[in-house]
Design brief:
6-stranded mixed sheet; 8 helices; binds 3-methyl-2-ureido-butyric acid; about 300 residues; Nitrilase/N-carbamoyl-D-aminoacid amidohydrolase
Length: about 300
């Protein structure tokens, strides 16, 4: 049985505050059709792909915040995406803001799901590394209130048996932490999908603004190599509500090589054939974990803060 997945990375250009979910879904359906024409069978969309990146604003009323969240998935706005995926036999990964009401308590997560070619949700991940701040900080040109609007994900980093391989997920800031990928790598992840919204301007260290694209590829390429896995990183890019977001959507091989990369800051599709068996080139050699890891010397890494 072939272990090759033809993967499409579907970068989205900006989504304005006024743009409806249906409009964003239509853009994603167009990219899915283009992916099908290129024989892809798995497509990856960005973090919080249904709306503008709302943590850049401070909202006082919870009702205003909740407008950006989905209470169920699929729902009326996203059903057409699921139907198209089913029709085209296309698996997908997408990020959205999730509102889960459990025993009357409202939980807010920055979530991604893995959907099989049958249109069935087979995996869910809730973002663990939430960047930014909790309170309004007037000195910033724009806010980054993920720590205020979301709870830390409670599902851990899991690998899902799907699409004929071992698939992991993480979201945006998670990619900067080697622990994210090592926990997925230790479970044998062969392909990791992640979406991101990364502003060019980092208010705490503006002297690093020119390094944003470099840091994006640096962490993804090293994580792919060090864990012998394919990585698909997908941006929401371009100038969104006066905030510039990096692009750099890419597909990276287990050797750390960049095999495809978006060149624009708009809606753009790239495709690459990912042979999951190529993970062995790394997993059975230089990073053969069972042969070469020395976990007794790493205990500090998992010690509490
Ligand atoms: N959406 C994000 O998680 N963005 C962060 C920014 C704030 C640094 C990122 O790591 O790209």
């Amino acid at each position: 049985m072939t272990r090759k997945i033809k993967v499409a990375a579907a970068q989205l250009g900006p989504i304005s505050r006024e743009e409806s979910r249906s409009s964003a879904v239509n853009r994603m359906i167009s990219l899915m059709r283009e992916a099908k024409k290129k024989d892809a069978n798995f497509i990856v969309y960005p973090e919080l792909a249904l709306t503008t990146f709302f943590p850049r604003w401070y909202f006082e009323k919870q009702s205003e915040i909740d407008k950006f969240f989905e209470k169920e998935m699929p729902n009326e706005a996203t059903q057409p995406l699921f139907e198209e995926a089913y029709k085209l036999k296309m698996g997908f990964n997408i990020g959205y803001a999730e509102l889960q009401i459990e025993d009357g308590i409202h939980h807010h997560y920055n979530t991604a799901i893995l959907v099989e070619k049958t249109g069935k949700i087979v995996g869910k991940y809730r973002k663990i590394h939430l960047p930014g701040h909790e309170e309004f900080e007037p000195w910033r040109p724009f806010q980054h209130l993920e720590k205020r609007y979301f709870e830390t994900g409670n599902l851990g980093f899991k690998v899902h048996q799907a699409l004929g391989g071992k698939i992991g997920m993480c979201i945006c800031n998670d990619r900067r932490w080697p622990e994210t990928f090592r926990v997925l790598g230790l479970q044998g992840a062969e392909l990791i999908a992640l979406g991101y919204n990364t502003p060019v301007h980092y208010p705490l260290a503006p002297e690093h603004d020119h390094l944003q694209d470099f840091h994006n590829h640096l962490v993804l390429q090293s994580a792919a190599y060090q864990n012998g896995t394919w990585i698909v990183g997908v941006a929401k890019a371009g100038e969104e509500e006066k905030c510039d977001l990096i692009g750099g959507t890419c597909i990276i091989a287990p050797t750390g090589e960049l095999v495809a990369e978006c060149k624009t800051l708009g809606d753009e599709l790239i495709v690459a054939e990912c042979d999951l068996d190529r993970c062995k080139e790394i997993k059975e050699n230089i990073f053969n974990f069972s042969l070469h890891r020395e976990p007794q010397n790493y205990t500090l890494i998992s010690a509490p803060k």
